[in-house]
Amino acid sequence: PKGVINDWRKFKLESEDRDSLSSSKKEILRQMSSPHRSFSKDDKDTRERFCRKMSMQEYELIQDEQEDESCLQKYRKRCMQDMHQRLSFGPKYGYLCELQSGEQFLEAIEKERKTTTVIVHIYEDGIKGCDALNNSLTCLAAEYATVKFCKIKASDTGAGDRFSNEVLPTLLVYKGGELLSNFISISEQFNEEFFAVDVESFLNEYGLLPERELPVLGNGNTDEQDVE
């Protein structure tokens, strides 16, 4: 596509050593950095000459295959980083948040942006499966930083009668203030010993977790493995 080609051309010019560029190439870079510059009718010939010169010099710039391949790898990494930033907008958490009251419980659900998934573990000390689930959610919170993972004791919710020991651990999933899923006695879904990967698989079966975040890419100055 034309936009991609133009972006690649600009990146190619910007990656050149500025001090080693000729004045004509520096002019090309300046013009490409100001794409909305207008020309008057009197400048028509100048514009046409500039376009021809830019095409010729861009053609010369991409003739060195080794240099071009290295530049292409850097360009692809930059595109991946840009895409990662666009897909990763919104707040980041990365930890399991302890809620202390029913008011905090409601705020964690209702005051989040509509695109944020909120997963709340209702537990009590000494209940089978609660500690293992808290440990698993702590690991998943680090893996899925855009998901808000919370835990709260049933006795702190203000509605302890609704969360008797028989239904714990309970996992509630919200989005946009709406309850998406309600899993009571969720530890019964797993083996006696379970880990984060088991909880992750379970949540993924219901489509409750986003795609894993892309790994942090290098700045292009190292010989890292290229992204396919």
UniProtKB/TrEMBL annotation:
Its main location: other. Keywords: Cell projection, Cilium, Cytoplasm, Nucleus, Phosphoprotein, Sensory transduction, Vision. GO terms for cellular component: cytosol; nucleus; photoreceptor inner segment; photoreceptor outer segment. InterPro entries: Phosducin, Phosducin-like_reg, Phosducin_N_dom_sf, Phosducin_thioredoxin-like_dom, Thioredoxin-like_sf. It is found in: Cell projection, Cilium, Photoreceptor outer segment; Cytoplasm, Cytosol; Nucleus; Photoreceptor inner segment. It comes from the Eukaryota. Gene3D superfamilies: Glutaredoxin, Phosducin, domain 2. Residues 16-46 are annotated as: Disordered. Residues 16-29 have a biased composition (Basic and acidic residues). This is Phosducin. It comes from Glareola pratincola (Collared pratincole). The lineage of its organism: Eukaryota, Metazoa, Chordata, Craniata, Vertebrata.
